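Components:
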Amino acid sequence: MSDKVIIFDTTLRDGEQSPGASMTKDEKVRIARQLERLKVDVIEAGFAASSEGDFQAISAVAAAVKDSIVCSLARANDKDITRAADALKAANAKRIHAFLATSPLHMAVKLRMSPEEVLEQAKRSIRFARNLAEDVEFSAEDGYRSEMDFLCRVVEGVINEGATTINIPDTVGYATPELYGDFIKTLRTRVPNSDKAVWSVHCHNDLGMAVANSLAGVKIGGARQIECTINGLGERAGNTALEEIVMALRTRKDYFDMVCGIDASQIVPASKLVSQITGFVVQPNKAVVGANAFAHTSGIHQDGILKNRDTYEIMRAEDVGWATNKIVLGKLSGRNAFKQRLQELGIAIEAEADLNEAFVRFKSLADQKSEIFDEDIIAIMSDSAAAEAGEFYKFISLSQHSETGERPKSKVTFRVGDKEASSEAEGNGPVDASLNAIEEIVKSGAEQLLYSVNAITSGTQSQGEVTVRLAKGGRIVNGVGTDPDIIAASAKAYLSALNKLHDPSQAKLNAQMTP
Ligand code: KIV
Ligand code: ZN
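Structure:
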């Protein structure tokens, strides 16, 4: 029997620490539901003590998720750990994840604590956490740059106090595969009670080796949990990409001889959802989830594929959830066909009213665009979910004039609460003019951190998906808008970001601002 590797997803915590990737409570719940469909074993939903917003988001995820363990990060102190336990109250299965740095540099400079103090605090925190949860993980932050003898003492101490998982992060992405694998193996061999806990790896991608290091931690080191994120989202150069880990374990089962419980067909929907919510576009040549990951353009390759797919394909696009980009629906498609396609895409829709609302959006898109692809349906459903979260500002219409040599002008009409407002403005380009027109009325004064446009399918018939990232008062929010007209998509994205700034229930400090 092959050993099982536990997949611990930290998109909602470590992933959120990417500058600009902060998510609202509702967005975290939407992603958590998709992670549950993906069948990840553990969902790290956030860092409860970092902000009231994150506490609320973790509580909401804990209440929504039934099949995965829900986890909160905590610094190794009573206050953080209590906060984590409180946020996880509603969870079916919960985990508290306490961390404390163990490298000489972090202990001296960041913590200003002696190694003996760190050892005592680590043990005390796990003892405390075990009174609040059965399932307790300890992470030795900057573990890979820690001294082996000291780290062995810390790990032995926290296992004695009841830690059920031991995580050895390569916090700064400094490791190389063999060295990291050997490091974990040495620890497991030297720590007397090492078999009493599950060993876990958590690798950052600063040198582009996060996935290779994690796999070596499992293969060479004997770890049985991998911490990872969708699309490799995470601090700086990111974290270990879940999709690459899962497909490496599956495709090279002959070598790894290990299994995980992930439903791979949910990988691409998860990737798209995370990309759409965070505004972090997936590079086309990204393994597994990049738009070109399964594209064969050279004549020789196409010829080979037509004769036998195995000539140039080691995985099947459909196995990881790529739709074959077929036209699925059109103007004449009815409500039942729409509902069935949603089911085939794994999109759960509970209330009849939500289905009706989504169907209205579908019909309106089908009036503008004759061919509706799966990607369009996913975008419609994301818009519907955003609308459900409450829209104070709602796009109505836009007219715009631009001519070479003249400054573009735009008039935007939108709802502000229950009133309709209209305003005109000029700008450097048609998008700038439209956003200026909105700003004339809203006067948010928010700083624009990002504006990006993406075609969600191929060809000029495609809908444009625009992401706008705004910062104000210590908060960073992303707004997404889709429309076949990219100027209208831009106005929608801007209004969607303004909605998040406006709605206090979506309040959340940027994860970077953790005290
Ligand atoms: O990279 C890291 O060390 C972490 C820990 C808090 C687990 O994210
Ligand atoms: Zn990390």
